[in-house]
């Protein structure tokens, strides 16, 4: 079955430092992949998505992600983290049954 | 862009009562909507797929008699939590697909409904 995993439950970075959140997927064909962010008590906001084409995807808020088929990964990156980036981040995939399956999430804390 | 709303945003009810949550696609038609549940500090778990004009499809382990889903129009799906109990307290999020739009492979999420059962 298609799935996504996020190996890091929680990450802490200093403000201004770079960030990389890991996501691995399991699917034989080219997957549809998403990164969402959720602030406490809030809904989901789509950061970026990958369907096909250029493997480096630019998103909102200065985020980008790179699709690497050889590593079955879709890691999210940001060159310089802001305190407002502290939130829960979810990697997700659209399955062949048109269902979105979410990873377990990575909680990001930012140290001033 | 495609907008999905939910109502109410928060609801508190007594144990044993039923609660209805609405999910609306505001600027597009959604033949399919999805309902998710999220417990504190956990990920979103798909509960069911709601199809306009037909019965919902429930994920394994989700009680269909407890979580009644109705998708009577192309812009509205409702989730009714029947005889709610404290363990049903959770964050419920819906999503919808704009199957005729350019972003047909993307689901648009509502802001969520916080249900607290006392």
Overview of the structural elements:
The complex is a heterodimer of chains A (112) and B (118). By secondary structure, chain A is mainly beta. In chain A, the strands form three sheets. In chain A, strands 2, 5, 6, 10, 11 and 12 form a six-stranded mixed β-sheet that branches. In chain A, strands 3-9-8-7 form a four-stranded antiparallel β-sheet, with no helix packed on it. A two-stranded antiparallel ribbon of chain A has the order 1-4. The model of chain A has no long low-confidence stretch (mean pLDDT 93). Chain B is mostly beta strands. In chain B, 0% of the residues lie in helices and 52% in strands. Chain B contains no helices and eleven strands. In chain B, the strands form two sheets. In chain B, strands 2, 4, 5, 6, 9, 10 and 11 form a seven-stranded mixed β-sheet that branches. Chain B has a four-stranded antiparallel β-sheet with strand order 1-3-8-7, with no helix packed on it. In chain B, a hairpin with a 5-residue loop joins strand 5 and strand 6. Chain B is globular. The relative contact order of chain B is 0.33. At the A-B interface, strand 5, strand 6 and strand 11 of A face strand 5 and strand 9 of B.
Short description:
The complex is a heterodimer of chains A (112) and B (118). Chain A has 112 residues and is mostly beta strands. Chain A has strands at residues 3-5, 10-14, 19-21, 24-26, 32-38, 44-50, 56-58, 64-68, 73-78, 87-94, 100-102, 106-111.
């Amino acid at each position: 079955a298609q799935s996504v995993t996020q190996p890091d439950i929680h990450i802490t970075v200093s403000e201004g430092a770079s960030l990389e959140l890991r996501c691995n997927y399991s699917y034989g064909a080219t997957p549809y992949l998403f990164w969402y962010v959720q602030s406490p008590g809030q809904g989901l906001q789509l950061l970026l998505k990958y369907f096909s084409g250029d493997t480096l995807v630019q998103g909102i808020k200065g985020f980008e992600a790179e699709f690497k088929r050889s590593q079955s990964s879709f890691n999210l990156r940001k060159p310089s983290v802001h305190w407002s980036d502290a939130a829960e981040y979810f990697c997700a995939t659209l399955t062949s049954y048109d269902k979105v399956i979410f990873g377990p999430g990575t909680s990001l804390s930012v140290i001033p | 862009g495609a907008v999905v709303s939910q109502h109410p945003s928060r609801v508190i009810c007594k144990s044993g009562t039923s609660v209805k949550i609405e999910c609306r696609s505001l600027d597009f038609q959604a033949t399919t909507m999805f309902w998710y549940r999220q417990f504190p500090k956990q990920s979103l778990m798909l509960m069911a797929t709601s199809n306009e004009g037909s019965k919902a499809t429930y994920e394994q382990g989700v009680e269909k008699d407890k979580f009644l889903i109705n998708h009577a129009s192309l812009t509205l799906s409702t989730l009714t939590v029947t005889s709610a109990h404290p363990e049903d307290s959770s964050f419920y999020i819906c999503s919808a697909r704009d199957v005729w739009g350019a972003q047909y492979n993307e689901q648009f999420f509502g802001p969520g409904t916080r249900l607290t059962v006392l």
